[in-house]
Amino acid sequence: MANDIIIDIKHLCKSFGDKKVLEDINLYVRRGEFITLLGPSGCGKTTLLRQIAGFIAPDSGCILLEGKDISSIPPYKRPLNTVFQRYALFPHLDVYDNIAFGLKLQKLPKDEIDKRVQKMLKMVSMTDYDDRSVESLSGGQQQRVAIARALVNYPKVLLLDEPFAALDLKMRKDMQIELKELHKKMGITFIYVTHDQEEALTLSDTVVVLNEGRIQQIGTPTDIYNEPCNSFVADFIGESTILNGRMIDDYRVEFMEMEFECVDKDFGKDVPVDVVIRPEDVYIMSKTDGAQFTGTVKSCIFKGVHYEMFVETSNGYELMVQDYNCFEVGSLVGLYIKPSDIQVMRKERTCNTLEATLVDETHIDMLGARWECLPQEGFKAGDSVKVTVDFDKVDLLDHQEDGQIAGEVRFLLYKGNHYHLTIDIDGGGRLWVDTDDIWDKGDLVGVNIRPQDLKISRCDG
């Protein structure tokens, strides 16, 4: 196994000012693997790639290449090449000389340079373009030249930073196919950065999902899609409906106020869980006989290869459904979900758990503010206490100044009949909120919690 690992990243951390961009990253890359770093903007994936390339120095941790620490080695001495989103081609050189540039710096014999360049031109289907100006090429052709220039040096690892982001959809899909074929032919390790989930699932042997500077999950595209480890991965990878549920027992789960058979076990009895339902896994039929439950079609949109519908169940939950058949808006339909298509995940949290300091019998300091609480007996001023608050007991206000504290909506998740929001509190801290109101990511909010909703206990209790 050790001989199979070409890059081994251990406890890598990076901050810019007060902002932690990467926190305790541990990851290994196998020789010849196509691995993709996937996540939303600002998750740290490009910073991680640039640290592997040597353009950014880590604050702590190390990067091993074939067992040797390269963290302090400058980029030009690393046997790695990078393909950037903006190509970075030399406009004054033709296609041939752009590809040959690195070889000429190495002072290789002219015959060797020509042999390698012609081989790369053939690999990227640019054989007849060697004397063309790069400025006369299309975006896809320029990206082919950039990839050929990076590969002509036979690097041990090729790093690709969202190389197809500037291309139109059809060209991007064509280039994905070509890149995958190129990887098979070359056998070189590829590390690819993208925020496009479909691109990651299409290209990769392994997908690394990042969010807020931390690795959320590592796995094959199939594992990432079919067995997400938390609600962020389930929501970010593909379309899905994520619902609050309760694991009744092995192979039995409750969600949408109904019981279903499932294939999951070892969660325990009567345990809160999250349930992921993919839209293609909901069977929809015009007959209600034999259906597990019924619903009314609220919308139906043609998506090219299927119809995408939102169906409201008879007990008020909303499911996304994809089917090759069109069901008219307003029609009553039957719905069925197979046990193997119900994905059960452990909940990351069941309530807000916060640290606070008791000021007096009826006040605590928490999240940078003073809060009124119900009278507390058995404590004294200055005691450190634990405070729990149910998700639905946090009130959000339109104006920050109207709240006890202020915050910003960082992440939102639709749970079938309500929204689950992540709120970053000004000055530090985080709250999770269940609400029926519609908010957008980036909204600034005021936050209030009533005294009776602050449940106070000892820190070790």
Low-confidence stretches: none
Q: Order of strands across the biggest sheet?
A: 6-7-8-3-9-10
DSSP helix fraction? 10-25%
**Number of distinct beta strands:** 30
Question: What distance separates the N and C termini?
Answer: 44 Å
Overall, the morphology is globular
Helix tally? Answer: 8
Can you summarize the main beta sheet? 6 strands, mixed
**Cα radius of gyration in angstroms:** 27 Å
Q: What percentage of the residues does DSSP assign to strands (E)? A: 35-45%
Quaternary state, please? single chain
Can you describe what's shown?
The two termini are 44 Å apart. The chain has a 6-stranded mixed sheet, sandwiched between helices. 18% of the residues lie in helices and 40% in strands. It is built from 8 helices and 30 strands. It has 461 residues and is α+β, with helices and mostly antiparallel strands. The chain is globular and about 85 Å long. Strand 16 (293-302) and strand 17 form a beta hairpin.
Quick gist of this model?
The chain has 461 residues and is of the alpha+beta class.
Give short descriptive properties of this protein.
six-stranded mixed sheet; 461 residues; globular; five-stranded antiparallel sheet; alpha+beta; 40% strand; single chain
Write the layout of secondary structure elements.
Layout: E1 5-16, E2 19-30, E3 34-38, H1 45-53, E4 60-65, E5 68-69, E6 80-83, H2 95-105, H3 110-123, H4 139-151, E7 157-161, H5 169-186, E8 189-194, H6 197-203, E9 206-211, E10 214-219, H7 221-226, H8 231-236, E11 241-249, E12 252-255, E13 258-261, E14 271-277, E15 282-285, E16 293-302, E17 307-313, E18 318-323, E19 332-337, E20 343-346, E21 352-360, E22 363-366, E23 369-372, E24 384-389, E25 394-397, E26 405-414, E27 419-425, E28 430-435, E29 444-449, E30 455-458
Parallel strand pairs: 3-8, 3-9, 6-7, 7-8
Antiparallel strand pairs: 1-2, 1-4, 4-5, 9-10, 11-12, 11-14, 12-13, 14-20, 15-19, 16-17, 16-19, 17-18, 21-22, 21-24, 22-23, 24-30, 25-29, 26-27, 26-29, 27-28
Helix pairs in contact: 2-3, 2-4, 3-4
